[in-house]
Amino acid sequence: KLFHACRDAEMWPEAIAACEGILATEPDARKRATWHFFLATTWQDHAGDDEKALAEFEKVLDEDATDAESIGAIGRLLQAAEDWQGLDAAWSRQVGRLESRPGTEAARCALLHELGENARLRLEDVARAAEYHARALELDPDHQGRRELLAGLYAQIPGRWKEAVREHQRLLGSDPKRIDSYHRMRGIL
């Protein structure tokens, strides 16, 4: 009752304190995730503390790894702050949370793709980008665009030309008329 009264009166520090008190005694993971989500949005929207909001969104995902709203909120906060290393770390933790859960292959693949693009475009770490895209390709081996991107990434990494050729050969296995792959392999060799 105290929490609802504080929230309705927009007494945010008191609502946060009441919510933290509820969290201390709540045994149900789903309900804890809901309370952490309330704390995260309150810190973000009413208290203006993005760091505490990020910490609470992470706690939501610790309780419920499939909460898409929290994943999106973390991404938006870190992108707005241009914290690309933080984004890499947060999404890597999320991939780890999802690995033990069956039926999350599509979500992991999407996160790994985003990690790869973050590493390639913002962190300018081609080797890390290749690793993430290779892991995404393991989950979705028929994605030709990602395979082509991976071949290009491997070609940019010194000593990884064999992997680039292998990826072009796989592309040619599905479409032997891919002239571009022949040209790129010739350039690599």
Verbal overview:
- Helix 3 (29-45) packs antiparallel against helix 4 (50-63), helix 7 runs antiparallel to helix 8 (126-139) and helix 10 (161-174) runs antiparallel to helix 11.
- The mean pLDDT is 89.
- Helices cover 79% and strands 0% of the residues.
- It is elongated.
- The chain is mainly alpha-helical and 189 residues long.
Spatial shape: elongated
Give the N-terminus to C-terminus distance in angstroms: 72 Å
How many helical elements?
Answer: 11
- Count of β-strands: 0
The biggest sheet, with number of strands, parallel, antiparallel or mixed sense and barrel status, is: none
Helix content: over 70%
Radius of gyration: 22 Å
Q: Which structural category fits the helices and strands? A: mainly alpha
Identify low-pLDDT runs. none
The pLDDT mean sits at 89
How do the helices and strands follow one another from N- to C-terminus? HHHHHHHHHHH
Strand content: under 5%
